[in-house]
Structure formats: C-alpha cells, structure tokens
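Lab manual, section 2.4: Encoding a predicted structure.

Procedure: take the sequence of the chain (845 residues), apply the prediction step described in section 2.3, and record the output as structure tokens. A sample record is shown.
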Amino acid sequence: MIRKIAVLALLWCAACYSKGPSLGTCNVAADCTLPDGGELAGVTCNSDHVCAYACSSICAPAEACVNGACELQGPRITLVTAPTTWSPASSSQFVTVTAVVDDTGGPGIASAVLRIAGASNIAGTTSETGLVRTYTFSVPGSVQAVGSETPVNFTIVATDSGGGVTPDRAAGTGQLRIDGKPPAVSSVTVTNGIAGPGGIPWVKSQPGFVDVVAVVQEGGSGINVSKLKLISGGVQFDQPSIVPPIVPYCTFGTTTACHFNVPQDKPGSTQVKYDFTVVGQDAAGNDFDATTTSASMGIDGAGPTVVLSGGTASYPAKDTGCEGTTSVYCGHDGSHFWRNGEPASAKVNVTVSDGNGSGSSSAVGAVKYCYLPSASAPACTPSLNANFESGSTFSIPASGFHAAPFSSDTKGSGNIFIQVTAQDAVGNPTTAVLPPVGLTRVKWVRGIGAAPGSLAGAPLVAEQLGLVIVAGLATSGDPIVAFKTSDGSLAWGFGAGKFTQLGSNMALDPTPSTDSNRPSPMLYLNTSGGDFYAMHFTATAAASYCMLSIPGLAGSPVIFGGGTTGYAILAAGDTAYSVRASVAGTGCPITGIKTQTIATGITLGPPSANGASVYFGYKNGSTDQGVKSVQSVGADFGAIATVSTTSQPTAGTTNAAVSPASDVFFAVNNNHTVYRYGAALGPSSLIWSTATVGTNVFSQPLVAGGSVFTSTTDLEVLTVNGTSPTSFGLAATQVSPPTITSDTIFVSDTKTGPVNELLAFDRAKNPLWLYRGDAATTPGSGLSSIATEATLASDGTLYFGDSSGHVYALITDTTPTPAAAAEWPRTGYDNCNSNHANNTGFICQ
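Recorded output:
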C-alpha cells in the first residue's frame, strides 16, 4: 500500500471539510487541534470560524486523514511492559522491556526499536509472525546517566514493510528504573555518646546495646536492610552473637535513618575505639558510597588513672614563708607542707588521664578526694571537690591538710594519705590513693640571737599586730624580743642597756585606746632588778615607754581597767602599789602612784586578781605564812583579808601567784599540797586540801573545764571539788604548766637522759603526739630543756621557748578555748594575757 501524505488533504475542496466533525470555533487553523492533541493535518478553520476535519470521523493514533479517509501510517504499539523493580546501572546488567506491535490493516511489521534520548536505539526481537507480534528489548543498565537514579524515559516505534513508521501518537512509552547512584551516609550518631578526644563519641561499657544511627541519602531503589552492617577491621561488630541476631532497621522519611545495635558490654576493663564503615546496598545492588561511610566510636570500660603531676607533690621551696636566715629553722624544708596555714597557692596537683579512652571529665565535682588515716586503711567516702585547673590537671589545696588524719614523729613530721576518685567522660569511676604527702608541725624555730639565755614565762601573742613576744635573760642585746608570727623574722627588741633579765610573765593590755598616755597595745613588766616598765609597741618598734624603780618587785604587774583607764598593781616587800603610767612626752612620767602596806614586815609574793580582789602569797618569818587580799577601789586600796597556812604559795623555791578562779587555788611546795580557799579568805575559808603525788610542785594549779591541774614530776588532775585524783603518767623529773583547750592539753616535760619534749594529749589523757625536735641533724630545732608554758594563738599555732633562747612555733590541731568566768587557765594570769580575771574595762584581743 502506497501511503498518502496527509498534507495533501489540504488541497481538497471546502465541501470535503464540511463532512468532518466540528472541532470547535477558530479564527485561524492554528486554533484547531485534534482531540488527542495530535498534529494539525486534515483540520482547517472554515469561513464560519469553525474547525472542520477532512474526514468523517477522527482517525486513530496510527492513522491520518488522507483524501477524506483515515489511512494507517505505520504499526501501532498497543502494550508496553517494563519492570517495576530497580536495576543497577551496569553495562552487564540488562532490563527487559516488551511491547506488542500491531500492524493490522498494514503490509506487515518489518522491525521495532526502543529509543532513549542520548543513547543508541535498541532493536527489538521477536519469534512471532503475523500482523500482531510481541517484541522484546534488552536495555543495558549503562543507559542511565552516571550518578543518577532518575527513571529513564523511553519510546518504542515500529516500521512496516512498506516503510511506514509508527507515528509519535501511536508510539509506546515507559520508564526504566535503573539506579545509578549509590546510597550516601550523611551522618552517624552514637545515641547518648559523649564527645571524647577529637570529637569521637564514646559510651560507657555496660550491659545492653548502644544505638548507632546512620542517616542515609537514597532516592532510588531504596535500601536493602538485610545488607546493612558496621564493619571495623574487616569484622562486623554491630550484631551480637545471639540467635536470632538483632538486625538493623531503618525508618523512612525525607531521609532514611538506619539503626545498628552495637553490644555495649565489652569484657574486662578495656577501652575500645572503633574506626568503622557503614556497609550496605540499595535494592538495585549498589554498594554504599565508600567516600561517605567512615565513622568512629568508642566503648570505654576503664576508669581514668590518677597520679601526682610530675610524680611528686609540689612542696614549697626550702624556707618559703620563713625569714630564711641561719637563725630560723623553717618547717618548709623542700619535702613538707605545713600542717596548717598554707596559702591558697600551695597545692598538690594530680593528673587525671584516661589513656586511649573517652577522656577525663573536667566537670565541677568530677574529681573528689578524702583523707585516709593510713595507706592501708579502708577506702573513705569522698566529699571534697578538687579544683579544676586546666586540661587534665586538678588540684587539692594544701590549706585544707589540717583536716587530714595525721600522726607526727618526734621531729613534728609525718605523712597524710589522700584518696582521689575521678571519672572519665562517660562516667567510669576510679579510686586511687596518692603517694604519701609530707606534713610538718614545725612552722618555724628560731634563736633569739643576741639574747641567748633562758626564756622567762610564756610567750605573749599580740594577735592584732601578728607578733609573738618573748623575754628572758640577755647577757647582750635585748632581753625582750618580738618576732613576726608569719615567718619568725625579728620585728623589734627592747631593753638593751636598760635591764638584762625578766623573771616572770609580762602582762599585755590590747584594749583599744586613742589616749596618747596609754595607747594600744601596752606591755607591763617587772625586771629582776626591781624596775617596772610600761611600754607601747607597734608592729615594727617598741615605740615609747616609762619606767619606775621599785626595789623588791615580785612577779608580774596586775592590770586593772584597760587602755585609757588602765593602771597596774605591783607588789614589793610588804607594800602594794597602784601606778598609772604615761608613755607620752619626754621622760615618760609616771603619775598617780598609790601605796598600801598590806602588813608591816611581811614579804609579798606576786599579785593576781579576780574582780576587785588582789591576792598575794606572803611570808613573815617561818610561822606566819599564807595568802592576803586587798580590795582595789578605783586606783586606791580598800579592805585587807588574810588566810594563814603552813607555807605561802610556791613553785619550786620561788614564791608564786595564786590562781583566783571561782575561789582561790594554790599549791605549797614545802608540803606538796594543793589548796582551795573561799574567795573571801578568813579563818574558816578552807574548802579542801590534797597532797600531790610528785615530789616537787613546779607551778601553781590551773583551773579549766571543771578540773584542777598541778605540775609536779607528773601532770596531776583533781576535780574542782578536790576529788578523783589522777595523773598523766609522765614519769618525768619536771613538768611544765599545761596549756588547755576544750579537746587538747599541751604540756612539756624533762625525763632522765635528758629528754625534753612537748606533748599533746586529749582530755581523756590519751597521747596524741609529741615533739622533741632534731638537734642532731637540725641544730636549733631540738628542745634543750623543758619548755616554757606554751601560748596557743587563734590560728592553732603553739608558741613556747626553752633555756637556750629558742622560740618554737608548732602547728597544732586545735584552737584556744575561751576561759569561763570561774576558770584560771594560765599560771600567774588569765586567758587574756593579764593576771586579772573579770577585769572591768579590759578587752581581750
């Protein structure tokens, strides 16, 4: 059959057009189209502006209107079948497409081809004959564009034996699902992972599984979930060895999140870091894009290690915090911290290292510590936070070492033990005991230098000025010397060229005062040569003084009032003196002296006072001995009272001041007896008397905490009722006056050897620690005699001296206890460094 060209229909007469169906109105032929949107051939716009078709009916897609009749132009493609599944974009992989070609009414089918834009036509094959045949097309996956997963559009046309080709309207169409783009992993998240070194997520090793989520970009064939794996070192590690295994799963949405279950419980204390690849395929068999699938994670089953930074404690350098001269031995010897008093800059640094794991945690409270009594003690419960410094370094402040259990040797040295607990970034804990940290009780020890003789009485601590003041016998230089409590350096000296020795305590008046006659603070003292001094001092100098010569002065002055209203009561021979001192102006005049003969011909001992009553031991020959009192009325004197005993109060062979606590307590060495008399004295005022155990009474009794302490060859204790006598079992040749707090008693003794030591006991008489020093290797640090009575400062530093003129500053574990009104805690004077209790107008420091 010879195909007519459709455009010849345009040459037919207008009547021909009128036979065709109306296709709508128009102005020009271009306004007219076939109902299926096909070509314009056979359609025109007539004079009535109506679209008319040349043929009597609309032709089929494979036909055209020729000479007023529909004629077949080529074979029809009636059915196209393409796979709905996806295929890979591979030249070795083929997609099979079939199409039914119908040339009914035509000369017969010659061939069929599948067309893809940009690709060569693919010829179809068939085993059939006849005018209707099924053709098969094998399309290689390589027709897909590289890196694309967009479906590939195709058309199928056929050619008949007369050369007719399937018109476009009758062509077969379809899409090939060829996936040429591999899935890509855009992110990997470890659920509850903690970022460790390099930002790698870590989890704690523990029973269960960790959910690792890979977000996959896949817009083609979809993910083949059964192929998903996490591979590290060639081994799959996301599925546990259980039956059935826990397999990954994916949730689909705008992006696809695939979940992998990784066993979280690793055997032993291990830290495992996995560098892994997300392995899988899409449904078309494309492997995941290898350039996007690598990730890392860690499972940490081991806590960090805790060690001293640099392997040792950063001890203060030798002589740090001390004057640093040969006269001063400093507890900072390069291998010890002070037991207490370290500045904030003094620290023990520890390094917390997690090896190859998740890293140490720098969070507040991540490193805690507590103190052990020994290296082998059971673990303690951490309650103190180490300070985060930087990186993996934390610090433990040395200023808190006083809270650690501590046992010092006779040199004042010992170790503390610190247990540190830390955790890594994922929370694995570690407990470590640090190497022992050395502490010392010795803050400093120093010689007086130009005044090397015996010290007299207890040191005085002027807290407001940071001074410790000592006095004694000086063959040259100053018999009174003040040192800075902070470092033992010399602040000032006084007395050179004026006197050489003090034989008793000094009295300190720290009462605030702006009076130039008696500015604050004032020091009152008697020399062994019979001179009374009133002295004002500062932190750097003995600023001004006045002196009154009274031969035969006994003991220390008693201060009445304080500051502006202060005056001193003195005893010499049989007379009591009331003196108002003035240190202002040239010559430091002393005015307003009052005198009172207590009893003609007697010899008074050192005075002490409670309220308005001043007490003196006295002696008149060998038969008239005892205690007298006189009332102080303003700066004058009033009534006198007396109690006679077999002897006057003595300490050794020296007349001593009584202890006027609630009543009058004193001891007599001649008959080794301790007495308690009523405060009013008089013939019937004896309350009790008790003989001592020791062979000598070396100091007058002290009253503190409901007990009476007497120093003999032991430290003996009675209740204030004179009952329940006990002792400390010191077996000494001499015992010093004790220094007493609510929880600790300090006392010095001399034992045969000689052995000289300062001891600390609890109130139940249990020994706590002792100090002897180390004269053999550290000259000047060893006690050369029994110590003076010690003075405890508010920061817990204990000050005392010895007969070689050394002053000791030892760090204790307690602080002073304020004395109650009914107590007398020091020999010769009260807890305010005055020998006057209940002193109206006097203000303790």
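Check your result against the sample. Residues 184-300 form a domain with the Immunoglobulin-like fold (CATH 2.60.40).
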